[in-house]
Design brief:
This protein is an alpha/beta fold. The chain has 4 helices and 7 strands; from the N terminus they run H-E-H-E-H-E-E-H-E-E-E. The relative contact order is 0.15.
Length: 156
């Protein structure tokens, strides 16, 4: 005999919605074009690009330049948020070692007033900066005409 359990039903609807959102994020991330500007001598940028390719199944065009700071400046990345590479993805600017999941969420939600995301500096344990298990907490900062705010925190 079947019984009605609204708690279970609500959980199933929530799980279904979560799976739909995940599929949408994956589709958006895969359909986006990615261009990364990096210094040819920087090895962590290559590791970060591999993280992106693996996590988002993304094709990344790499442009080598000795003046990554000029690219970041031209794209409106505030000086305090700059790092070692700049990625252009779906019209957004991604600066530094931003995790792929945060980029997928940005592309899926497209928040107002946001030009891009940044992880300032090069925190140990962030994608591409794996260092023998050493990890530093860090934040992903959303920036743009709407100001700056914490987009996500990683306190590994």
């Amino acid at each position: 005999m079947l019984s009605f359990n609204p708690g279970k039903s609500a959980r199933l609807r929530l799980a279904g919605a979560a799976l739909t959102l995940l599929a949408a994020c994956s589709g958006v991330a895969q359909a986006t074009t990615y261009t990364m500007y990096r210094d040819p001598g920087c090895g962590c940028c290559k590791k970060w690009a591999e993280h992106m390719r693996s996590a988002l199944k993304a094709q990344i065009t790499v442009v080598e330049t000795r003046d990554v700071a000029a690219v970041a400046e031209q794209r409106g990345v505030p000086a305090a948020l700059r790092s070692c590479h700049t990625l252009i993805a779906g019209g957004y600017v991604i600066e530094g070692h931003v995790p792929a999941a945060d980029i997928a969420r940005l592309l899926a939600t497209r928040p107002r007033g946001v030009t891009g995301l940044a992880v300032p500096g090069m925190p140990l344990g962030s994608p591409g900066m794996e260092a023998g298990g050493e990890k530093q907490p860090y934040q992903v900062i959303a920036f743009g005409p709407g100001g700056r705010r914490v987009f996500s925190s990683h306190n590994r």
